[in-house]
Structure formats: structure tokens, C-alpha cells
Amino acid sequence: MEGLTKRFVICKDERFEFLVEDGIITACKDRKIHTDFVYYNTEDKDND
């Protein structure tokens, strides 16, 4: 892990990186495919 407590990166198997912001995984990166993080959809969905 590297970074600040509110924003840091977790590395897995020398291939994947996960960006954690405020305790939530907000993006991931597959180092073999991407050079930038791919952010998850963070929009709140209405389940009415």
C-alpha cells in the first residue's frame, strides 16, 4: 500500500492496482492493459 490515509493504492500480484478514496475502492488498473486508472461508476442509482 502507498499513499495517504484518505487516498491510497493497493497492489495485488504485481499486476492489479486499486485506488481507495475515503475507504471505498473507486478505481482499478490492470498494468498489462492500462496505464491509467479505470474509475467505477459512482453515481447513486434510484431503486424506486
Automatic annotation (TrEMBL):
The entry's keywords: Plasmid
Name of the protein this chain belongs to: Uncharacterized protein
Species of origin: Paenibacillus amylolyticus
